[in-house]
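Title: [Solved] DNA-directed RNA polymerase subunit 3D structure

Original question kept below for reference.
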Amino acid sequence: MASLQFCSECNNLLYPKADPHRRIMVFACRICQYEEASESKCVYRNDLLTVTKEQVGVTTDLGSDPTLAHSNVECPRCGNEDAVLFQDQSKRKETRMILFFVCSKCNHSFTDPTVQSDTRENEEG
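Solution (posted by the thread starter after getting help):
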């Protein structure tokens, strides 16, 4: 895991830098001339797949919000054919567009049932 390194001479932040003569990465101070060899080759790691997941961000009274789009998708819980829809807000690199629905009658949240059947047909074909 990458962490911040500080200069032992002047307590300023050390920045990663390549040392072309020794062909290694070092952490160098930009204020004084202090350098130390890096123990790890990892400078920064941003792992979005473990941070965000596809989940519904439902707040109360979402079904009665007049600014959101409505669809006639059948609710799997109560059978009502009026639901509010919105798009997944996760910012992942490999995210497909996922629509979430919230039933306007019982507030049950669910994903688009047609997306799951479409992906199965693509895998088989």
